[in-house]
Amino acid sequence: MSDCCSTTATIEVPVEPRVAGRIRTVALVGPPNSGKSTLFNRLTGLRQKVANYPGVTVEQRVGRLNGIGRSDLTLIDLPGIYGLDSYSEDARVAVEVLHGEMPGTPAPDAILLVLDSLQLRRQLMLAAPVLALGLPTLVLLNMSDLMEARGGRVDTLALAQELGVPVAKISATRGAGLDSITHFLNRKAEPETPNVALAAGRIELPVMGNPRSYRQWATGISTRTKYKAPISNEWTKRIDGVLLHRIWGPLIFLAVVFAVFQVVFSIGQPLSDGFGDVLNGVGARIGALMGPGWVESLLIDGIWRGVASVLVFLPQILLLFLFIGVLEDSGYLARAALIADRVMRSIGLNGKAFIPLLSAYACAVPAIMATRTIENKRDRFATILVAPFMTCSARLPIYMLMIAAFIPNRPILGDLFGLRAAVMLSLYVLGFVAALGTAWLLKSSILKASSAPFILELPQYRLPTVRSLSLRLVDRGKVFLRQAGTVILAVTIVLWVMSHVPFHTDLAGSVIGRIGQFIEPAIKPLGFNWKIGIGLLTSVMAREVIVGTLGTLYGADPATQSLGLQAALRHDLTLGGAMALVVFFAFAMQCTSTIAIVRRETNSWRWPALQFAYMSVLAYVAALATNQVILHFVR
Amino acid sequence: MVAIALLSDFGVEDGEELDLSGAWKLSLLSELAIGTVGVVESLDLPGEIQHHLMHMGFLPEARVMVVRRAPAGDPTVYSIDGFEVALRRDTARAIRVRECETPDTR
Predict the structure, then answer these.
(1) Is residue B52 within 8 angstroms of chain A, CB to CB?
(2) pLDDT single digits (tens) B17-74
(3) A170 has a pLDDT exceeding 70
(4) Inside any domain, residue A184
(5) How many CB atoms lie within 10 A of CB B31?
């Protein structure tokens, strides 16, 4: 069938030389939110992030076509584009890869052009510049099942004749019609001139670079291929009528946020507690089997306590991600950006910045990458600099721990909303306000710019599938467990050793105790003891490490060894110190991954250095103020 | 300016379209009321943004419907070619349209 063995073997490097008529690398091209990444995941078996808003993919991703048994071929997923101009950073990536100008990424020698068949007339405009590239191309009409269900139709044979390339209807979500891709790749593997029709002048492309001529060309083709657009989804309009309502819209937004925090506590906390009991039980069981000794102390009091104290937060973190998943997959995120645009504009930021900022509730690293969709460079930098203030899920463990230990479980609005959820919510608000305030400072000083336009495509609402939500949770769970099994495990081992050297001294006399007491004067005014100080040092690697550190240190201390971590903290900290600690974490940039990604995206050490210094100073001052205020006014 | 060129040449090529739309008056996209439909005449924005919007479908003769305003009154959601896009008033002000009295004629 294919003759892919006929050419001489080449060296196994990612960037292979092009051989005429031979396909090695295939690129997925298409407008934003047309389903390229969903198809990429289908075809490669990988798990590239997908969601229902334009601009989810912001850099090229490469995978092998394992999903259709062609592991000899490379597939490149690209950010969505409207044309071949580099309008924003993510579009620039796509265009450079297509032209083979992206270092480290092979130039594609075939293209899968993915178009959303619900909006074919407009999306066909992209076909003009893409076909002009002269590469073998297969046009895929995605979501064709939806189009037909809603009464739309198109003559694919006629379309193929008009375009001079094969056309197939698919559904990337359901995996329907993918055999057309296999056929295309097998057929095109035979040496033949790419795009015969174009070469022979049988089809005519519009004047390049002129959107108006693209448009006329696309309209002409849609008419001749009898394209009938599906009736628009009335549901989206009806839902928006409520969710974007002048009064109900913002109210529902707030109600949803309240509900999430309450659920994370009322359902998540018992789950986490139960999970913690199981983990402790297992630890105690194993410890009893081994009998007392230094091995038992290292394994149970050191490693197990340290790692388990972070692991217990897994249920709550998964709950939060379930919520974020529903938000992203349903299409609501773009609406939230729309509601927030007014606020964002008043501080000088683009409303589009709200999407990266909201996704920073999961993690700042992908959020900082997502700023590539912001066209204005100064707006983009300002968003990068404030994104780490948003409360990421790595802060959740220390927040949960401190709140559960120090804040009583008292109802505020009956059973609907409790004091603990309120404290948690105020920490999130604190981070958000700090982000907005800092953005305002930046935009009115070093990053001043004229206001950039806000152009945001609103996707149609879709019901999130159980499959995609559970995949997200599994992936997130894996990341969390990997973190616990690597960074946190390593830190706890080092800490345990340092807290037992030199031998035959107590904890205060150990290496770690001396380091802690050395830095204690600097943090005492904040209400922190030296153990917290060590936690602040180790958490520079990642925020959740502090909980593991505290678990290990209190486990190594004979005075608190028999207590649970919450009880040990209550024994050792005041309310002022505890609240100062969470405030410190709300502001501090305790995350090496974030520092690294800011360095990469801004292409300079200057920005991450400035950011780290600013956030650390702010964290220290705010924590100091919190502790002093609570000392003077509470009790 | 691109905008001027477009404005001047659509009248010649698409002259008959003008008659189809019935009674109309020139206006700015930002001034249209919710539920009304406008036919794009010209855009007058900085080059890159203009190009971007045109690729999204904001081209002369495209029909744009005003769908709704955001809760704060701005931006506004427009429907063009069966998809929805939100624009701030500043941007919509730079798009000149012919207002259609009867939205459902075509």
Answers:
(1) yes
(2) 444 445 567 899 999 999 999 999 999 988 778 888 888 889 888 899 999 999 888 8
(3) yes
(4) yes
(5) 14
CB within 8 Å: A215 and B51: no
Question: Residue B77, CB half-sphere, CA atoms under 13 Å: how many?
Answer: 25
Contacts 24+ apart (CB under 8 A), B32-35: B32/B66, B32/B97, B32/B99, B33/B66, B34/B66, B34/B67, B34/B68, B34/B69, B35/B65, B35/B66, B35/B103
Asked whether residue B13 is domain-assigned, the answer is yes
Structure tokens belonging to residue A336:
């939230």
Domain assignment of residue A60, yes or no: yes
Residue A12 lies in a domain: no
The nearest alpha carbon in chain A to B72 belongs to A342
Nearest alpha-carbon partner for A142 in A32, A26, A281: A32
Contacts of A367 by beta carbon, 8 Å cutoff, 6+ apart: A356, A357, A359, A360, A387, A390
Chain A residue with CA closest to B77: the answer is A458
Q: Which CATH number fits the domain that encloses residue B28?
A: 2.30.30.90
User: Rounded to 10 degrees, what is the CA torsion of A583, A589, A593, A596?
Assistant: 170
Q: Which residues of B touch A215 (CB under 8 A)?
A: 54, 57, 59, 62
Domain extent, residue B93, equals 2-100
Task: From A193, A224, A255, give the residue that closes a domain.
Answer: A224
* Alpha-carbon span A56 to A54, nearest angstrom: 6
Give which of A120, A159, A127 is closest to A143, Cα–Cα. Answer: A120
The Cα-based distances of A81 to A35, A127, A466, A485, A608 in angstroms read 12, 11, 29, 39, 30
The CA-based angle A309-A359-A65, given to 5 degrees, is 95
Contact A118 B72 (CB under 8 A): no
| Identity of the amino acid at A471 | L
Hey, are the CB atoms on B6 and A211 less than 8 Å from each other? no
Split into its structural domains, chain A has a count of: 2
What is the span of the domain harbouring residue A175? Answer: 25-224
Q: Where are the beta strands (DSSP E) in A370-409?
A: none
Compute φ and ψ for B15, nearest 5 degrees: -55, -40
CA atoms within 13 A on the CB side of A553: 25
Q: Is residue A189 part of a domain?
A: yes
Tracing tokens 């463990």 back to the chain, one arrives at A397
Could you give the strand order of the β-sheet that contains A167-169, starting from the edge strand earlier in sequence? A61-65, A70-77, A25-29, A110-116, A137-142, A167-169
Which ipTM did the prediction report?
0.79
State both tokens at A4: 């892919």
pLDDT of A202 reads: 57
User: Could you check whether the bond before residue A502 is cis, i.e. omega within 30 degrees of 0?
Assistant: yes
Token digits of residue A273: 């507690």
Distance in angstroms (rounded) separating the CA atoms of residues B71 and A326: 22
At residue A196, the pLDDT reads 53
Domain count within chain B: 1
